Amino acid sequence: MNWSQSFFQLALWACVTIVTTSYGQVVGDQCSSPWVQYRDSCYIFATGYPEDWTEAGSFCSRLGAKLAEIGSADENNFLRLHAFEINPEGHFWVGGTDVLVDGQWIWISSQEKIEYTDWGPGEPNGAIREGCLMLNGGKYHFHWNDANCHSLQSFICEKQLDLGGSPSVIG
């Protein structure tokens, strides 16, 4: 990584840290900007500095979150809609992978088998080194794609909403 990449990575981290520190309060059952809520989770769409899949997961962890794990068609449609609103041509990493066992897709943070899927036509195609899951924008309308884990993409982080009634901090 060269100096300019390091600088931009630090700048992005600082911006997200400032935003989540300043605006990261969860009050009752709502996520505050820039997080968006779906049911009992808060999501942030990180678009400022693309990362490979592993670094995207690490970035989410620094926010007290994980790469998004999609459990239903409703949740998937929610994320697809927001991804389209942010960048219709974009691609977003989420937390699915088959790097541990080729062809067996799991959510990396929970190690649970992926039950609900929304693969695009011909996907997953099992191409060499395509072991990470992304929402594939543009002509693919954010259906799922197995992609090279080292490609640099935007990503979606997910954090559970604290429904215990007392405010907590995200980030």
Automatic annotation (TrEMBL):
Domain of life of the organism encoding this protein: Eukaryota
All copies of domain C-type lectin, residue ranges: 38-158
Keywords: Disulfide bond, Signal
Signal peptide (UniProt feature, chain positions): 1-24
InterPro entries, alphabetized: C-type_lectin-like, C-type_lectin-like/link_sf, C-type_lectin/snaclec_domain, C-type_lectin_CS, CTDL_fold
Protein name listed in UniProt: C-type lectin domain-containing protein
Source organism: Magallana gigas (Pacific oyster)
